[in-house]
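Friendly challenge for the regulars: who can give me the structure tokens for this chain first? No prize, just bragging rights.
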Amino acid sequence: MRFAFTDDQLAFADAVRELLADQCDAARVRAAWDGDGRVPGLWDRLAEMGVLGMLAPEGTGGLGMADVDLVAILAEGGRAAIPDPLAATAAVAVPTIRDHAQSDDAERWLAEISAGTARVGVGLSGNVGVLHAADAAIFLLEADDGLHLVDADVVELQPLDSVDGARRLSAVTWTPSAATRLPSAELAASQARDRAAVATAAELCGLADTMLAMTVAYVSERRQFGVPIGSFQAVKHQLADALVELEFAKPLVWRAALSRSTGDPSASMHASMAKAAASDAAHTVGLAALQCHGAIGYTVECDLHLWLKRSWALRAQDGDAAAHRRLVEAALLG
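First reply, four minutes later:
Bragging rights claimed.
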């Protein structure tokens, strides 16, 4: 099967890339480490563009699109190392509420999330904490019996540290009940985990793209023995190998989003394949970027660390590569 993004999908992703290049540059990402973990005004701009509600029905202020329409935009979010919880909101919370919440709750929350006036915290099993939980009006939280839709006034939050200073994480304590449990809660949890894995994989691809671009620019300028170090074969080969691994991971991520959009019965396995490949690729790219930067790459003054530490966090989030390879093995063995 041949797959390619449509002109409209590419145009939307390009528009988001332009917005992020203007509104979410390295200086603003760095400022988010010392601030509240957000880029001022960016969330409202994403809402105005329709990004937050891309998967919400048109009747609730959304665009009525599918996962495959969003995945390239999530990669752009990773490319910019956006601190705001774009993936958790647009790729996980919105379709989960759309498909599994009671109709009145769904209409209310989808309209407010799409408009950017309400924020949602997503806490799935296996993850350390909930991103930007302090700002959430509603939570999607996984318990032993599936996924629950929980009001913010019945949870307790405990701030957590993260290797990525722009990620504001909190442990969320709450009491599951029949009143908060979603219909088809177990299915909702399973689909949410798959969507989260694909969204995080897309972000990792974007992060790796930027780390490679930074490194190519650096080795083209850094000189040794009178020539750019990028002219050395060892450097060329290392970066070429990293690029190849990344480019082989991307189609798995795009395919996983397409599988979810088309109801492919193998969508869950495809999600695991995507997350495993993207995690491995981001690891390879990060190692190459750090080694090619040399000592400066280890300093906080170097912008590389903003993207590198985000990739460390996201490689572990929503299941690491080893965990997803085990899921793929189990699916193949039946």
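The mean pLDDT is 95. The CA atoms of residues 7 and 13 lie 10 Å apart. Your move, everyone else.
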